[in-house]
Design brief:
This protein is an alpha+beta fold. It has 14 helices and nine strands. α9 runs parallel beside α10 and α10 packs antiparallel against α11.
Length: 539
């Protein structure tokens, strides 16, 4: 519990740092937004929370961040991380496509609705911004994550094929050893049993001690043959190791255990099954095989040594452990007592569980019953095998761990390379995001440009000045003594520079007169040029 909490804090801190850098860069590039500081802080906290839960709730994280991203484009880098992780760990191509397109649509709609509210531009500008942000921070990282996830699955398939081939080779070798032992040792024991039987018949008329010794040798030989068959059964093919049926993907699952219980009930044993936790179909074959073998061995022992007893099978499956507990009462009255077993079955079962890093406890009960408890790690610790079933990658990781057989230095270099690739990818997404937002902003400015309104009567002085009604010294000097009378109530007049000519030796001036702060008069008049001076159409 402590490690996931520390990991969540580290991810939240890293996400906050990424947001701060992105927001600063976007604000410096002139692409910031005008949201209140309190609203922006709440949005950032929500985005960080969605970043932390992106592995367990990819759909919620992606869609929620998309809604926030449309209003606050500085969350683009966090969205890129979420989209990459979600697309990498989701197995179905259709599900990935629907989720990425839905998140893009949510981002575009959020940007279109928030742009007019924030005063950034029209609805069309919001749609443009949303399309740019969604394409660069949702679709591009999502496609990269989908490609990485596909690569993980291909590596898992290759690893599974390699392990299958290795397992088949191991099975073949064990079968060969079992066959040789059966041919050599079994043949010798058969000869001993045959000769001992002949010796026993030849000693019919001899003293009783000799006959009993011969019979004891023959019985011992039979016991040795039976024990040899048990040993050869352990060395035989794994398909025989799991029962009469061959090993399948259902071996050790809840349905398989229910089938074993049903079979025992049909044989006259009162068995109850209690299953707690998810199914074991997400675990690798070794774990499922061990669960199957423990339940089967426990029920078989009940059939042999505790006929008529009531049996309880309890399977508790968590994220870290699979606990199998089989408890039976004493042998029912009326059933013949069975001879004591050799204990080799439990010994082989204990070794099987120990190879996976688990424990097996078998002990009698005070009431004459028996309890068999196996604790099997969900992730085996066998160093010769990967820590997770390659055919079923962990759903919350979204990737395959490094090969445990590699040296620690190679694993460290691999992680450093992955980190450098991630930083380069984020830098590329950030650069494209800045360029895309700047391009959209420039398009908005060029589209919204309109020529200024010409001065008109009743316009304020500031608006008239923005429209070009500004005073020029040369025009004022040229109008002195030649301008028409000013309107009544005029407080000030301005004379803009003019390029308009009304004749070869005159120029047309415009006068704007203000009464206080209001434009009250617009007059145009001709002013003669000085003798010998040519007219110009440009200054």
């Amino acid at each position: 519990m402590v490690r996931p909490f520390v990991r969540s804090l580290a991810e939240a801190a890293a996400g906050a740092a990424v947001f701060a850098v992105t927001h600063t860069v976007l604000a410096g590039a002139g692409t910031g937004v005008s949201l209140p500081r309190e609203v922006k802080a709440l949005m950032v906290l929500a985005a960080l929370a969605l970043l932390v839960v992106r592995r367990r709730r990819p759909a919620l994280s992606l869609l929620g961040t998309g809604a926030l991203l449309g209003a606050l484009s500085s969350l683009g880098m966090l969205m890129a991380v979420i989209a990459y992780t979600a697309a990498r760990q989701l197995p179905g191509a259709r599900r990935r496509a629907v989720l990425l397109l839905s998140a893009s649509a949510v981002t575009v709609c959020s940007a279109a609705l928030s742009a007019p509210y924030e005063g950034l531009g029209s609805l069309r500008y919001g749609l443009t911004i949303g399309a740019v942000v969604a394409g660069l921070t949702v679709l591009v990282p999502g496609l990269a994550g989908a490609s990485a996830g596909q690569q993980d699955r291909l590596v898992a398939a290759l690893r599974e094929r390699s392990e299958t081939a290795e397992e088949a080779s191991r099975i073949q070798e064990r079968t060969r050893i079992a066959a040789e032992m059966h041919d050599l040792v079994g043949h010798r024991l058969s000869l001993i049993s045959l000769h001992t039987g002949g010796l026993e018949m030849a000693l019919r008329g001899q003293p009783r001690d000799l006959r009993e010794s011969a019979a004891q040798v023959r019985q011992t030989t039979r016991d040795a043959m039976r024990e040899l068959r048990e040993v050869l059964g352990v060395l035989g093919p794994l398909s025989r190791d799991t029962g009469t049926d061959a090993l399948t993907d259902a071996t050790g699952t809840r349905a398989d255990i229910e089938a074993l219980v049903t079979e025992s009930r049909a044989g006259g044993v009162a068995v109850t099954l209690h299953w707690s936790g998810p199914d074991t179909d997400v675990r690798e074959a070794r774990v499922r095989r061990a669960v199957h073998r423990v339940v089967r061995e426990g029920l078989t022992n009940v059939h042999r040594y505790a006929a008529g007893a009531r049996v309880s099978v309890v399977v508790t499956h968590t994220g870290e452990l699979a606990v199998v507990r089989i408890t039976n009462g004493p042998r029912a009255e009326g059933h013949p007592a069975a001879p004591h077993g050799t204990g080799r079955g439990l010994t082989a079962l204990r070794e099987r569980v120990a190879l996976l890093g688990g424990t097996l406890d078998a002990a009698p009960r005070p009431d004459g019953g028996f309890t068999l408890t196996a604790r099997i790690p969900a992730t085996p610790t066998d160093p010769s095998r990967p820590s997770a079933d390659p055919a079923r990658p962990s759903a919350d990781s979204g990737r395959l761990d490094a090969d445990p057989g590699r040296p620690a230095g190679a694993a460290l270099l691999r992680r450093l390379g992955q980190g450098a690739t991630a930083l380069l990818g984020m830098a590329g997404v950030g650069a494209m995001l800045i360029l895309g937002l700047r391009l959209a902003d420039d398009l908005r400015l060029s589209h919204d440009y309109a020529p200024p309104e010409p001065p008109r009567l009743g316009m304020s002085r500031s608006a008239a000045e923005r429209a070009g009604a500004v005073d020029h010294e040369l025009s004022r000097a040229a109008a002195a003594g030649r301008e028409p009378p000013r309107p009544a109530g005029t407080t000030e007049c301005v004379y803009p520079y003019s390029y308009d000519t009304s004749g070869p030796n005159s120029i047309e001036l415009t006068r704007y007169c203000f009464s206080g702060d209001v434009l009250t008069g617009i007059d145009r008049f001709d002013v003669p040029l000085a003798p010998g001076r040519e007219t110009r159409s440009t200054p």
